[in-house]
User: Fold this.
Amino acid sequence: MTGDDYQSAPLARRLRAVGQALEALRVQDFELRVSGDDYLVRGSQATPAAPPPQTSQPARRSALGTLRRILGGVEPIDLEPPTPPRAQESQQLELRFTADDIAKLERQGQSRRQASPGMPDLHSLPQVLRTIGDYLDRQGHELARVGKQGQNITIEHGMPDGQRSVEERTASSIYDLSVRMYLRRTDRP
Assistant:
């Protein structure tokens, strides 16, 4: 997918790509808003408890460096979620994902997925966002906002008749949608 193919790409693919970056940045709770072709994310990033002062580095600089590596290909990065540190603090982030950013993330994610066949973790953030995208794609609805607070997920979307709808979901209901999505995929000829 290139930036030019962005509009024709299913929402499920675009959201999965954004989810891969958020997972790599260890974003826990967030609000994702659509702004034209861009996705704006405001959220909290799990960061290890502050190390001793001589080795301390601001979490924002670390997060931006990680995102630059992901998008710029400066060095390979493993987008698998890291093992959580024993003690965590939270750092607030604000990110903008452009169509070109999402296209790069999708290409990187696709090569990783091809290298590791099998069933993805349906609880992972990329799969949660992909499932939400698939759910809205199948209904012909446009995403306006997705929010995640703990196990609660809010989906705001525009319906074909122009009205807005807000749905409150739990992580377990999104998991159920994920299972159904994969069952439909396996039933394809």
Summary: Strands lie at 27-35, 38-48, 88-97, 142-149, 152-158, 164-170. The chain has one domain: 3-186. The first strand starts at residue 27 and ends at 35. Residues 3-186 form one domain.
